[in-house]
Amino acid sequence: MIGYGGTTTHAAQVDLDKLIQEFPDGQILIEDGDRIVGVALTALVDYDEFSNPHQYDDLIGSREIILNDPDGDALYGLDVLIDPTYRGYRLGRRLYEARKELCRSMNLRAILAGGRIPNYHEYAEAMSPAEYLEAVARKEIHDPILSFQLANDFQVKRLLRKYLPEDEKSQGYATLLEWNNILFEPAERVLETRKTQVRVGAVQWQMREFASVESVLQQVEYFVDAVADYQSDFVVLPELFNTPLMGLTDQSDQLAAIHFLAGFTERFKTEISRMAVSYNINIVAGSMVEEGADGKLYNVSYLCRRDGEIDRQAKLHITPQERRDWVVEGGDELRVFDTDAGRVGILICYDVEFPELPRLLADQDMDILFVPFWTDTKNSYLRVRHCAQARAIENECYVVVCGSVGNVPSIENLDIQYAQSSVFSPSDFAFPHDAVLSETTPNTEMVMFSDLDLTRLKVVRSEGTVTNLKDRRQDLFDLRLRDWSWKSGSRQEDSH
C-alpha cells in the first residue's frame, strides 16, 4: 500500500491487535466489497507529551506494542495506507477527514503526527532540513508525505531530529504536525461552557403617540414577555424607541424637548432591567437619550442582562440632524460584552457605517453585533443595511439590525420611519446562500426570531472558503482605538 503517514515502513512490525482492541474507533477502514483498500491507524496520546520533541520509539512499548493512552486528550496519526490500484480516488483525504471528525466527536485537543520527509535525501547536500520544509511549503519541492499533510490543513510545529534514526531517505528527520480542533472544550470547563445555540428576537417597533411613560413601558413589557416565551436569549429594541414621549411637551424648542425626554431615561433603565430579570432574557434596550454629569446629551444603548447587571454603549458618530437639532455628543468608549450567550457588541445606527468600529470589536472575539437603528427613508435604511451586511462578512460574525416603523406627523422629527429588521451572517456554505438568516416585512410592526449557531463562526474563521480575519496583512497595517485600549469591557490607557 501507498503510505501518507509518518511510519509506513514500521506499521507491519508492530502488533496492531492490542491497538484495535483498545481503540477500535481510531482504526478507520475503507472497503471495496470484501477488499480493504484504505487504512488509517490512530492512537490516543497525551497532548503535552507528544506536542513536544519525541521519537517514534516513544509510541512503542518493549514488545513492539503501540502505547495507546485511554486517558489521552489528542489523537496521534500513525499511518494512512492506500491500495496503489485505488490511487486518484482521494481516499487518503477521506481518511484524514474521518480522523478530524473523530477528534471533534471525542472532544480532543488536536491530531498530532510525526511525518517523515522521504524526499529529503535528494536535497540534503544542497539545503538544511528547515530549508527543505520551507521549499515544500512554497510548493517548490513535492514531498509525498509532507505535501499531502499540508494540503489537509496540518501545520508544521517543529522539526524532529532522530525521529526514526534508521530512516535513510529522511536521514532521521521528521516533522511534528498538528491539526488543531477549534471546537475543543476542556473537561474542567464543560459545566461553565456558554451556549453555542443562541436565539435572538428583534422587535420592529411602531412609533406612535403615547399618553404617558407607563404606556410606553407597558408596550415594551408586552414584547419582552412575548419574545421570552419563545426561550430567546436576547430581545432587541430599536434606536430611540421612546422618542414619541417628546409629544408630551412643547416642541417649539427641540433642545428643551430632547432634554425633557432624557429625564425619563433612568426610569426606563430601571424598569427594563427589572423585565430582564423577571423574564430571564437579555435586553438590548435600543437606545435612549442620556444626560451626562457634564450636562451634555448622549445617545446610549443599554444592555440589561438577565442577572441584573446593566452595561452601556454610547453612539460614537453623531448624525448631522442629531447634532443640529438636539446637540447630541458622541461617546468615546467601545466595548465588547461577555454574556451568557456569546460575546456581543452594540453599535447604534450610523456607527455601523464606519468599518473600523466593528473590526476593533472583532479583534476582541465578538460573536454577535447588535445594531439598533432609526431611519426615515429607504435610502437611509439601505445605507445601514448594506454596511451591516458587509460588517458580518468582513468580521465573520452575526449582525442583528433592528429598526422602527410608522408615521407620527404630530411630533417633530418623527414624521416618517422606514425599516426592515434583519439578521446577517458571514457568506459561506454553512450559512444561507444570500447571507440573510431572517428578516421582517418592511414597515410593519412585528417580531423577528433567529437562531444563531456560534460554532459555525468558529469553523468559518478557521476553515472557511475565505478567512478574512486570519488573512489580514497586519505586516502592512494595523488598527487600534486611539488613546485607550480595552479588554473584555474594561478600559485602560494605551501606551502607544
Identify the notable features of this structure and list them briefly.
single chain; 496 residues; alpha/beta; Aminopeptidase; Nitrilase/N-carbamoyl-D-aminoacid amidohydrolase; 2 domains; 9-stranded mixed beta sheet; 7-stranded mixed beta sheet; disordered C terminus
Describe the protein in words.
Strands 8, 9, 10, 11, 12, 13, 14, 19 and 22 form a 9-stranded mixed beta sheet that branches. Strands 1, 2, 3, 4, 5, 6 and 7 form a 7-stranded mixed beta sheet that branches. The chain starts with a strand and ends with a strand. With 496 residues, the protein is an alpha/beta fold. The protein folds into 2 domains: 2-189, Gcn5-related N-acetyltransferase (GNAT) (Aminopeptidase, 3-Layer(aba) Sandwich); 194-469 and 483-493, Nitrilase/N-carbamoyl-D-aminoacid amidohydrolase, CATH 3.60.110.10. It has helices spanning 17-22, 47-50, 91-105, 129-137, 146-151, 213-228, 254-262, 265-278, 320-326, 356-362, 378-395, 454-463, and strands spanning 2-3, 28-32, 35-45, 74-82, 110-116, 155-160, 174-180, 197-206, 234-236, 282-284, 288-291, 297-304, 310-314, 328-329, 337-339, 342-346, 368-372, 398-402, 404-405, 422-424, 436-439, 446-453, 484-487, 490-493. It has 12 helices and 24 strands. Residues 8-12 and 485-496 have low confidence and may be disordered.
